Amino acid sequence: MTRAWILPMSLMACGVLVAVPETRDGSPLVAVGLCLVFVVLAWLYSPLAFPRSIGAAEAQRRSAADGMPVVYWRAGCTYCMRLRIRLGRNAGRLHWVDIRRDPAGAAEVRAANGGDETVPTVVVAGRPHVNPDPAWVRGQLPPSA
Asked: Which residue range or ranges hold the Glutaredoxin domain (predicted)?
């Protein structure tokens, strides 16, 4: 759990360290701008930028019921963030499993990737796809009702 927050908290600390000298030099607007940039970066690299994670077993059960893909991801992963951002509002329709929080999810990813925890791993119809193109993933979504 705490590993997922190391990078975002480090970014916040860097933002403060960069903004304090700007404030002392008489540039409060620059300091606020820098702080905002670091806050946005921290949010993007945090688990908050992703839809709520569920366990691997629950994700598989829901996927079998509704046909939506399961995405195994990890906070701080640039490729996971790329997938999440490029999916836009459709990201909330998928079932997201944070492999840092769910050991069963990490085991699923290792089984699909020859022992490696390569993410994002997207499972569509029981078949894993490692770091797929976001447009392809969007094409795998059933039409919304």
From this structure: 70-127
0.90 exceeded by the pTM? no
* Overall number of domains in the chain: 2
Distance of CA 77 to the CA centre of its chain: 7
Domain membership flag for residue 67: yes
Classify residue 33: in a domain, yes or no.
Answer: yes
Q: Are strands 70-73 and 121-124 parallel, antiparallel or unpaired?
A: antiparallel
pLDDT for 46-91, tens place per residue? 777 777 889 999 999 999 999 899 999 998 888 998 998 898 888 8
* Contact of 82 with 89, CB cutoff 8 Å: no
Question: 110: domain range?
Answer: 51-139
- The pLDDT value recorded for residue 42 is 87
144: in domain: no
